[in-house]
Every structure is written in structure tokens, then in C-alpha cells.
């Protein structure tokens, strides 16, 4: 018998309709799902936080975040997710469980979350206005700068929210990771919230 | 000038005469202008009668010009958008507005129920409590519906609201309630300091009382100063001005509630826009500049249409260029009321007389009276002659005993001003009495909040600006902002003198609370009947309990209570203030969370595939799960479910079980950790094996169950029930962080990482051989019962395979990363096609677990022990675990406990129902001989009859006994046999085979 094919479907594969949504005219917000990524939860074992930090520094060339921050490197983003733990987000296939296991052997426990989350990026003039309907976090530029991160909730759903590097046009970019099984539900709430400003909707395989 | 706006001035006012708007009130067409409220447009059209009162159906007019209005309540809009009890005084006029008066039949001017006035002597305080006491059962059936028809206010739309509402968060250093002189000055100071400021104004225009009363600020007219200030504020990037927004409450941690009426001023919200938005504002500091509310004086006939608050009359004349009356009388007990006489004269109206309750009137006002040619009468109004057509004549009791009469078609009243102490009092604050202004003022406030301006009892314009500016500066400073605040706006202070006057004795009803029809004599009656505490007074008379929350009536009510009970006003005190400050639509609190968005929804990885197959979904917690997959020709769910069960038992089927909670337990101490949270041992579990585990609560009652597999020496994969997934994760985190911090163990929820399917039936292995890498040994020896390991799948991906069975059949569970979940379902269909593979839903899953006697949610119900479930032998005696000690308590090990047992009707054709009580045969059903109940039922295709599980006293010792299933809810009573709970394959040969 021939081999089976294993199509990958993101949790938003059906709900996301690329194009414009809501109010016509210049879209106030861009909503982009990023589909191709690896996400690994890294947790220090008891008393091994320093060892974990050292390993992270060696692998990524930066210190792993010790407070709610997202640290960008050339090919990964390290996102704080709790005391002595962080997430490694990278382009699909870059920093996988298998490739990180030897790096952190002995000092950490790793758990694959690549399929457990959907990744949505929100940017544009009205990004903060849209997110204000979803999140209790203060996103004022003086308060939530580039690299700020929060483990918080939106629409009663746990999310990891962080501010990535600004767009080429200077607009702030907010990224959110939401649990896969909640993603479609939250997506509809995001659309509801964005409708009055008009949204440009798309998806991308690549992390920005 | 448009239409027949007979009472519109030819110039002046903040209305746009170039933008005429047509509207309908009670079916009649009128016109007004942009900038009008419904109330001001009615005033401009000479409409005085706008509603009927709550209890007596008395004719009522417009009393105020703000959100404190008790009388001018209308049903706004029609059809599904009909909104009852809308204040005409705050409803912005728009083209095509439709409004109807309330509580009248058949029409506003001829209202049948106004005969209630004739029976007024019996409709006193406590009337309903006293009258409709007996017979008790008449209350719900007869009295209440009749009373509701006769009394009450507007009618609800009774259909779903077609508009959207949403909720949003905002953050700032300083939030300011109100944009009068104090609020604008506060915003200026705070904004200039560099603070992030939110200025909330419930009106659609900024300026507060400046809009009606004008004044000179920094040498500019009030209008010019407001324009300049708003321009300055608007240029500040971190100052946000929110009109049509009422700050209605203060909550813990500096969180404030506000309601923004985003599109209430339009007939229908523009596409994609919301009608209203609920704001939660997090602010370091709050300045309450909400102003003050002018209060009425209680006298006979004070509710006659045409009687209006003096300040409201100025608003209509100055702001809206609409004249409520042509010949007005003014009744005041304070200096401020006289402004209305000045305004009336300036607008060319006649002043019939000023009745001043104070002993003396200023020389300036005396000369105004002599120039205007009207008398100043020292005394008080004792009666009003008029009706639905409005005020005609006013009786005055002059100081010294003589009487006078004044002919007028309108009466302006000022009893002084009550600072709006709501926000400052919402955390159980009690305002304090200030004698000089005869009013309650804030006495402290919730943390971070301060009142300024007339909300703080400062009634002069200069004082309002000063207090506002200083409060704004201090708030910004406290929030860490230190920019240059520039110079303070300056204005003269007006003198304010008042002689308190609350109630004038006279013939006829004198209303305290016009919205709830509470009179001065109701207050006096309450006092005589012992309801003297203000809280009792409120509830006995319903004073202040209407939608206006007594904004114009509370202080007068308690002042009258103070007078009749011989106490001072501060001794009498106020009732407790509670938010919201104005009514807030429930829809705004719900926001998006209505209908299908009532709560978040979780979808399984194969959801869309299941939908394609025509699955019927069931809500289980937040999840949508496939309940069964109907096929053409099947007449009901039972037929579909029975087919699915038979297909599994005779061939092979699969079911998405991804909803189970899944937790990675990592670390060198993972086994030791699990030994403590489960009653059975896991440290002894071999790598590559799975084991069923049961965990207890600290009190010894069963908490959850599920299988846990050991994937590596330091890695277990734990599963929970669907219902408890989140709770078990919390529980384990608590155990890890708090109870056992010494253990080196890490936890991660991987519930969403894996798509998991149960594949069950005698042909399971045949199916798997097609899809699993041929190198994998799936034989009984190579993959024994309770084996667990990673396998390769054809086509290149890896999966985890667990040989576990819930159905009692030969079964595996297979896990793939979630984004392959849909492909997994499709590939299972392809691989299983030669074997007649059948997808099955939660119903078939449930049938098979009941046939097999497996316990689930109805048995793990928070009252059962391991022993009750027949799992007592799993409790290890070689180790400690959570719940062990408490599970040994006498009552939890009693032989008389209700335990899980099988149940089947003796009549094989009878349907068993869950919830039926188990009663010994021959006994009368009752609590004394209730021996348990049926927990789970199904139609068993294997046994061809209805079967069930139940919790029955000493059930396991009574196998074979015939008892009664007594079901009073459904009116059923029938014989059932207690039997072994494992109906199917009791020795388990099939699942091991």
C-alpha cells in the first residue's frame, strides 16, 4: 500500500479567510497568522537555573529572559513563560525538540508545544485599540515596549502576548500565542473587535 | 427655524438651526435641531406632558435637563431596538427618532388608570405588603401580574437586541469624571504635567454647567474658554477625551467602570460598529468633577407639568434656546436660583414672581425685580393649580401667615444643590453634612480618588476652577508626572447663601420621589410605623429605588424623615451608595459574550472533518464534541448510536478523544511525585507501559482518573478526564510548588499538542497494520495490553501508541501532533476501509463504557470514594498519597455506603432513566428508605435492553436482588435487578486478545 499523506492544518486553517474584513477603506489593523514554527517549552530542573541560562547563552548568544520579556536573536525568540522557564520560538525546523535536547540535557525538561499553539500577529494604526478590547494589559508604548511580554488572558483564554520588532513602517507589532483548540474561538472574537476599524487578514509561513 | 417650534428662540443656544431633524413622539411628528435632546426638542415644541407616573398615573412633565431625570422617561425606538425608560433629557435627537410615552393607556392625555389617583389614600407606603398578603398563593397568580400591568414603566422589546456591544480596557494616570469647569481645569493641569489622562463626560458636549450658565474665565466667555481648553487638551497625545461616557463605578485596585454610548445618537449603529462600549479604566488617580444636582422642594402639586428645576430651565433657555414657559414663577431658597430669573428676563420671558424662602434677598436682586416689574414674595409655595395642561396658578404662604396667588404657566424651583457624591461613596463611604451649603459632601473617597469643584461642595466658578486645577496637578504628581502645569484658569466666585427648606405643608400630594410616586406623607407614615432608619425608609416606601436611584429625591426624603423624627440630618444619615451611577445595559456587560459566543469554544483537531461527516456536536464544557454520526435513513440518534456500537464491537471504529487533559510530567522525581498524587504506584511502572490511576482529594473523595504512561525514565505522560483537565493541572501545580517543592519535577500541559484517537474493535490491529510502519510489532507479545511507545507511521510522521481500552474491546489510542489530527482522521478512514471502519461519537463511547462497567463523570461525582467505585484495592498500603488518611474516616469506609452496581429493568422492554431512586421492594418511597439512585444509563446493543450503573447502598452484596426504580420526576416506578456492573466480557478477554 502507498504511503499516507500527512497534511498539516493550522488551527485557523478553516476560520481564516485572507483578504479584507469589516469596515471598508484603509484597514486599521493587519491580522496575520504565522503557520510554520517550532515552539519548545524549556524548564529548569530543580537548582539548575544557572546551568540552563548558560546553555541558552551558548546556543542563542543571548541571556534567556528572567522577567516577562521576549528576547529576539538571529533565528529565534526566547519568551519568558514563568520562573526559570521560557519558550523557544523559531521558524519550523530550526530549533526543534530534537535539536535542543542535547543543548539542555541534564539541566532542563523540554516539552514540545509546536502544535499546541496558534501564532497571530496584530499590527497597524488600530492594533492597540483592537487589543484593548481583548486584553487587560497596558500596551502604551512607554509601558509595553519592544520585547515586553505577558502571560495573560484574552476572552477568558490563556495567551502569551509580546511586542516584536516594529514593522518597516514603524508600526508596533504584537504577537500572541493561543492554545490551538481555543484559536478559532478567539479568532472570531478578534475579528469582532477589529471589524469597526477594518482588517487586512492573511497568513504566512514565515516568522517575521 | 423649522416647523412649528413655537417655543424656540430665534437666536442663541448650542443648536444648529441649519440642521433640522424630524422626530415622532406618541405618533405625532415634530421637528428639532441638531444639538437638541429629545427633551429640549419637546420643550421647543411646547410639549409639557411627557409621561404618566408609576403608581398614580399622574401627568408628568420634564423636571430636569440631565441624567437625574425622574419623569421624562420614554420608550425610544421601536421593534427589537425599543428601549424602555430612556431619559428624554439625555437622549440626543436624530433624524427619524421615534419615542413613546410610558405607563399610559389608551393615550397620554386620557389615561384610564389615572383613576388610581382617586384611590390615592389607600396607595400609601407599604400598600402592597399590607394588602396582598392573603391568600399567599394569590400573589404569583393574580396580584403580581395585575399590579405589573397597572404599574411599572416602559415595555421591554422582548426580542433579541440586534446591536452589538463590546468591552475594552483603558489605562491612564488620571481619570476625570466630568468636564465642567473643575473637570476641564483638572485635565489641563494633569495633561500639562505630562500625565496620561482620560476625561469622561456623559454629555455629548464638553463644558458641564458652563453650557447653561456661562461666566467669564481668564477674561474669556465660558464658551471661548471651553473651546480654547478643549483645543489644548486635544493636542496632547496622552489625553483622551471621551464624550457620551459616564464613569459609573469604582472597583478594587483603581479600576473604574465607564459606559460609552458610542452610537446611541444614531438611529442604527453604522455597519461594524457597536451601540455601546463598556470600559474598564485602570487609573492611578481619579478626580471626581461630576458636579452637583439641583434638588427640588417638596410641596403640594410639585409634580405638575411645567414645574421644573431652576437650573434645568436655564439649560433649556441658554443651551437649547427653548423656552419651557412664557410666564414663569421662581421658587428658591438660595442665591443660585435667581440666575433663572435673570436668564428668563434676558430671553424676553415674563417673570410672574420670585418666591424666596430666605429672610433676605440681595440688593442686586431687589433691583432686578423692580426693573423687571415682578414681586418678590417671602414665603413658600403651598399648592399648584394645574393639570395635564400644565401649571396655571400658584398658591403662596407668605412669611407671617398671609397668602398670595401667582398666575404663571411655568414654575422654576431651586432647593439648593447636592454634590454628586456617588463615586466617592461607592466603597461604603458616608458623606458628611456641611451646614453652610446645607448639603452632603464627600468625606474621604476610595484610594486614589478625590472630589473637586461642586462635586466637593465648591459652588463658585472660581472655586471650581481652582479645586479642579489643584486636584489635577496633585493627581498627576502622585502618578509621578512633574511637567510644568502653567497658570491656573481664574474666574470670580459667586456668592452662595441658602436657607434650608425641604417640605412645605399644604393640601394635596407633595412628591419626594417622583419616579416612584413617594410622597412626603409616605415618609411620615413610614416614620409612624417604625421604619425610621433610612435603609428601612428606602425599602418600605421604595424611595430612591427607581431607575434614577433617587438623584433628585434621596436627600429631601431623609431630611423630611429627620424633621418628623426630631433628629438632625447628619444623625439621620444616608443610605449606602452603590454603582452604577446611571443604568447600564446588560448587553454592555455581556459584550461579545452572547449567543454562540456566550463562552469560548474549544474544537478538537478533527472537528472540521467530523463536521464534513455530518456529525452532531454536543457541548461538553467548552468543547464541541462529535456526539454521533447520523447516516441517511436512520430515524433517530439511538439507531445511529446502536449502529456505531455494533460496528466497533464486531469490527473497528475510532473516536477523537483529544479532549482528555494531557500533561507532561518530567524530571528525576516524576515517579515519586505521581506516587503521591495517585492512590496507586507509578514509580514502579516500567518504561513503555501505561497504567490506570485514580487520584483523591485531600478529604479522601475521588478527584479524577485516567491513564498515565511512562515514556522515558524521567518522563511520564498523564491523562485526565475531559471535565477536570484544567483543574487537575492546577492541582498538580499546587502539589509541585507548594506541597512538594523538594521534588525535582516539571509539568507542562500538552492537551493541545496532541490529537488523540481511540481505535477500538476486534479488527483494530488489522487497521493499524495498514497505517503503522510495517517494522513495528503490534502482536500481543510485541505490544501487549497496557503497552505504550512511539511508533512510525507510513508516510513519515511519528505517533505515540497506547494499548488501552475504555470500550472493553481490543483497542489502542494513537496520538499525533495536533496539526496532523485532521489527516489522522482521514487516514484512519482510508486504512480502515477494508474493515468497515466506523467513526463513533461520545454517545457510543458512553454506551460501551457503561456496558463495560467503567465509571465516569456521573460516578466520579465528588461524593464517592475509591471503595464506592469498586477500586478500593488500588489504594496502596506501601506509600503515602494525597487523601489516604482522610479516606480512612469511619463514614468513608462504612459498609453501608452507596456503591457502584449494575442495574437493569426486569421488564426488558422498559427504558431505564438516570436519576431514578432505588427503593426496596414493597416499601413506600421516601427519604427514609431511599437507597441510592441510577447514575448512568444506555441502551445496550449487546444485551438488547436498557442498562445502567447506580450508586446503591451495599449494592455489591445485593447482586440479584429486585428493587424499585422510583422516578417521581417522570412519574415512573418499576422493578429493576441489581447486577454486576460489568455487563460485557467480565473477564476482559476481548481487550487483552
Automatic annotation (TrEMBL), chain A:
Signal peptide: none annotated. It comes from the Bacteria. InterPro entries: SoxG, TrmE/GcvT-like. Gene3D superfamilies: Heterotetrameric sarcosine oxidase, Probable tRNA modification gtpase trme, domain 1. Pfam families: SoxG. This is Sarcosine oxidase subunit gamma family protein.
TrEMBL record, chain B:
Residues 607-879 form the GCVT N-terminal domain. Pfam families: FAD_oxidored, Fer2_4, GCV_T, GCV_T_C, SO_alpha_A3. Residues 900-985 form the Aminomethyltransferase C-terminal domain. Residues 507-591 form the SoxA A3 domain. Keywords: Oxidoreductase. It comes from the Bacteria. Belongs to the GcvT family. This is Sarcosine oxidase subunit alpha.
Amino acid at each position: 500500500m502507498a504511503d499516507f499523506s500527512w497534511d498539516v492544518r493550522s488551527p485557523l486553517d478553516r476560520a481564516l479567510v485572507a483578504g479584507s474584513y469589516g469596515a471598508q477603506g484603509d484597514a486599521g489593523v493587519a491580522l496575520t497568522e504565522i503557520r510554520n514554527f517550532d515552539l519548545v517549552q524549556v524548564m529548569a530542573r530543580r537548582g539548575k537555573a544557572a546551568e540552563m541560562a548558560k546553555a541558552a547563552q551558548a546556543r542563542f548568544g543571548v541571556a534567556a529572559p528572567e522577567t516577562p520579556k521576549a528576547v529576539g536573536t538571529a533565528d529565534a525568540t526566547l519568551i519568558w513563560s514563568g520562573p526559570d522557564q521560557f519558550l523557544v520560538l523559531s521558524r519550523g525546523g530550526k530549533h526543534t525538540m530534537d535539536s535542543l535536547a542535547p543543548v539542555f540535557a541534564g539541566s532542563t525538561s523540554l516539552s514540545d508545544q509546536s502544535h499546541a499553539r496558534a501564532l497571530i500577529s496584530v499590527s497597524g494604526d488600530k492594533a492597540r485599540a483592537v487589543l484593548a478590547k481583548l486584553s487587560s494589559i497596558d500596551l502604551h508604548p512607554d509601558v509595553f515596549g519592544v520585547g515586553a511580554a505577558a502571560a495573560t488572558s484574552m476572552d477568558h483564554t490563556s495567551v502569551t502576548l509580546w511586542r516584536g520588532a516594529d514593522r518597516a513602517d514603524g508600526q508596533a507589532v504584537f504577537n500572541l500565542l493561543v492554545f490551538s483548540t481555543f484559536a478559532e474561538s478567539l479568532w472570531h472574537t478578534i475579528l469582532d473587535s477589529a471589524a469597526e476599524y477594518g482588517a487586512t487578514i492573511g497568513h504566512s509561513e514565515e516568522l517575521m | 427655524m423649522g416647523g412649528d417650534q413655537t417655543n424656540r428662540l430665534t437666536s442663541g443656544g448650542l443648536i444648529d438651526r441649519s440642521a433640522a431633524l424630524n422626530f415622532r413622539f406618541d405618533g405625532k411628528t415634530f421637528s428639532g435641531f441638531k444639538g437638541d435632546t429629545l427633551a429640549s426638542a419637546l420643550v421647543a415644541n411646547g410639549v409639557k406632558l411627557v409621561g404618566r407616573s408609576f403608581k398614580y398615573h399622574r401627568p408628568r412633565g420634564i423636571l430636569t435637563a440631565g441624567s437625574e431625570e425622574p419623569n421624562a422617561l420614554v420608550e425610544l425606538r421601536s421593534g427589537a431596538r425599543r428601549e424602555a425608560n430612556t431619559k428624554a433629557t439625555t437622549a440626543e435627537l436624530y433624524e427619524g427618532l421615534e419615542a413613546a410615552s410610558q405607563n399610559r393607556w389608551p393615550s397620554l392625555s386620557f389615561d384610564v388608570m389615572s383613576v388610581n389617583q382617586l384611590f390615592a389614600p389607600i396607595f400609601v407606603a407599604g400598600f402592597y405588603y399590607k394588602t396582598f398578603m392573603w391568600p399567599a398563593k394569590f400573589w404569583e397568580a393574580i396580584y403580581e401580574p395585575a399590579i405589573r400591568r397597572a404599574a411599572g414603566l416602559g415595555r421591554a422589546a422582548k426580542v433579541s437586541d440586534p446591536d452589538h456591544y463590546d468591552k475594552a480596557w483603558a489605562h491612564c494616570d488620571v481619570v476625570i469624571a466630568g468636564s465642567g469647569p473643575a473637570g476641564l481645569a483638572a485635565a489641563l493641569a494633569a495633561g500639562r504635567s505630562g500625565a496620561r489622562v482620560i476625561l469622561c463626560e456623559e454629555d455629548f458636549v464638553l463644558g458641564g454647567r458652563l453650557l447653561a450658565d456661562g461666566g467669564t474665565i481668564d477674561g474669556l466667555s465660558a464658551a471661548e474658554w471651553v473651546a480654547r481648553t478643549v483645543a489644548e487638551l486635544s493636542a496632547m497625545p496622552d489625553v483622551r477625551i471621551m464624550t457620551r461616557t459616564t464613569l459609573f463605578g469604582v472597583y478594587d485596585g483603581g479600576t473604574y467602570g465607564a459606559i460609552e454610548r458610542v452610537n446611541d445618537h444614531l438611529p442604527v449603529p453604522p455597519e461594524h460598529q457597536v451601540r455601546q462600549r463598556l470600559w474598564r479604566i485602570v487609573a492611578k488617580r481619579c478626580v471626581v468633577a461630576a458636579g452637583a444636582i439641583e434638588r427640588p422642594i417638596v410641596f403640594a402639586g410639585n409634580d405638575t407639568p411645567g414645574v421644573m428645576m431652576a437650573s434645568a430651565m436655564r439649560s433649556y433657555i441658554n443651551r437649547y434656546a427653548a423656552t419651557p414657559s412664557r410666564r414663569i414663577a421662581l421658587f428658591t431658597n438660595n442665591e443660585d436660583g435667581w440666575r433663572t430669573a435673570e436668564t428668563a428676563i434676558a430671553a424676553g420671558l415674563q417673570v410672574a414672581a420670585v418666591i424666596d424662602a430666605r429672610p433676605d434677598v440681595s440688593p442686586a436682586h431687589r433691583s432686578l425685580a423692580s426693573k423687571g416689574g415682578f414681586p418678590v414674595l417671602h414665603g413658600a409655595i403651598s399648592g399648584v393649580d394645574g393639570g395635564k395642561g400644565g401649571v396655571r396658578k400658584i398658591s403662596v404662604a407668605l412669611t407671617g401667615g398671609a397668602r398670595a396667588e401667582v398666575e404663571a404657566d411655568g414654575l422654576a424651583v431651586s432647593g439648593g444643590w447636592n454634590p454628586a457624591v456617588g463615586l466617592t461613596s461607592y466603597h461604603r463611604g458616608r458623606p458628611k453634612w456641611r451646614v453652610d451649603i446645607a448639603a452632603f459632601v464627600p468625606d474621604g473617597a476610595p484610594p486614589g480618588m478625590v472630589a473637586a469643584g461642586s462635586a466637593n461642595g465648591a459652588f463658585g466658578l472660581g472655586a471650581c476652577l481652582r479645586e479642579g486645577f489643584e486636584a489635577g496637578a496633585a493627581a498627576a504628581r502622585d502618578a509621578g508626572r512633574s511637567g510644568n502645569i502653567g497658570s491656573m484658569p481664574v474666574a470670580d466666585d459667586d456668592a452662595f447663601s441658602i436657607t434650608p427648606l425641604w417640605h412645605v405643608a399644604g393640601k394635596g400630594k407633595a412628591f419626594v420621589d417622583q419616579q416612584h410616586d413617594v410622597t412626603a406623607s409616605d415618609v411620615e407614615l413610614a416614620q409612624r410605623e417604625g421604619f425610621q432608619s433610612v435603609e428601612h425608609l428606602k425599602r418600605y416606601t421604595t424611595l430612591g429605588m427607581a431607575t434614577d436611584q433617587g438623584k433628585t429625591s434621596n436627600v429631601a426624603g431623609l431630611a423630611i424623615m429627620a424633621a418628623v423624627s426630631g433628629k438632625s440630618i447628619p444623625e439621620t444619615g444616608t443610605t449606602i451608595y452603590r454603582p452604577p451611577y446611571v443604568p447600564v445595559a446588560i448587553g454592555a456587560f455581556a459584550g461579545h459574550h452572547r449567543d454562540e459566543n456566550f463562552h469560548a469554544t474549544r474544537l478538537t483537531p478533527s472537528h472540521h472533518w467530523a463536521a464534513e461527516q455530518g456529525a452532531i456536536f454536543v457541548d461538553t464544557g467548552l468543547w464541541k464534541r462529535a456526539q454521533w454520526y447520523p447516516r441517511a435513513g436512520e430515524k433517530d440518534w439511538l439507531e445511529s448510536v446502536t449502529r456505531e456500537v455494533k460496528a466497533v464491537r464486531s469490527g473497528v471504529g475510532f473516536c477523537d478523544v483529544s479532549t482528555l487533559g494531557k500533561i507532561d510530567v518530567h524530571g528525576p522525581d516524576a515517579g515519586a511525585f505521581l506516587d503521591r498524587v495517585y492512590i496507586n504506584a507509578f514509580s514502579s511502572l516500567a518504561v513503555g507501559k501505561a497504567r490506570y490511576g485514580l487520584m483523591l482529594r485531600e478529604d479522601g473523595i475521588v478527584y479524577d482518573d485516567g491513564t498515565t504512561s511512562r515514556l522515558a525514565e524521567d518522563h511520564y505522560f498523564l491523562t485526565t478526564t475531559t471535565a477536570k483537565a484544567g483543574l487537575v493541572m492546577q492541582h498538580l501545580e499546587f502539589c509541585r510548588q507548594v506541597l512538594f517543592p523538594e521534588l525535582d519535577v516539571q509539568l507542562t500541559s500538552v492537551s493541545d499538542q496532541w490529537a488523540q484517537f481511540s481505535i477500538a474493535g476486534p479488527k483494530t490491529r488489522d487497521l493499524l497494520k495498514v497505517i503503522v510502519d510495517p517494522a513495528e510489532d503490534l502482536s500481543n507479545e510485541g505490544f501487549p495490553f497496557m503497552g505504550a511507545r512511539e511508533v512510525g507511521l507510513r508516510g513519515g510522521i511519528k505517533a505515540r501508541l497506547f494499548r488501552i481500552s475504555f470500550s472493553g474491546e481490543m483497542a489502542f489510542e494513537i496520538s499525533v501532533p495536533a496539526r496532523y489530527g485532521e489527516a489522522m482522521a482521514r487516514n484512519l478512514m482510508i486504512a480502515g476501509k477494508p474493515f468497515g471502519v466506523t467513526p463513533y461519537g461520545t454517545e457510543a463511547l458512553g454506551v460501551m463504557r457503561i456496558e463495560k462497567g467503567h465509571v465516569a463523570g456521573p460516578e466520579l461525582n465528588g461524593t464517592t470514594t475509591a471503595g464506592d467505585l469498586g477500586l478500593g484495592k488500588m489504594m496502596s498500603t506501601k506509600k503515602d498519597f494525597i487523601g489516604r488518611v482522610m479516606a480512612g474516616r469511619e463514614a468513608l469506609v462504612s459498609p453501608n455506603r452507596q456503591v457502584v452496581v449494575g442495574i437493569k429493568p426486569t421488564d426488558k422492554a422498559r427504558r431505564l432513566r438516570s436519576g431514578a431512586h432505588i427503593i426496596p421492594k414493597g416499601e413506600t418511597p421516601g427519604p427514609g428508605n431511599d437507597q441510592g439512585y441510577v447514575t448512568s444509563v444506555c441502551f445496550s446493543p449487546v444485551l438488547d435492553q436498557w442498562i445502567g450503573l447506580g450508586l446503591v447502598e451495599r449494592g455489591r452484596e445485593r447482586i440479584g436482588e429486585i428493587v424499585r426504580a422510583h422516578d417521581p420526576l417522570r412519574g415512573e416506578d418499576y422493578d429493576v435487578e441489581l447486577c454486576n456492573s460489568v455487563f460485557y466480557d467480565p473477564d476482559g478477554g476481548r481487550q487483552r486478545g
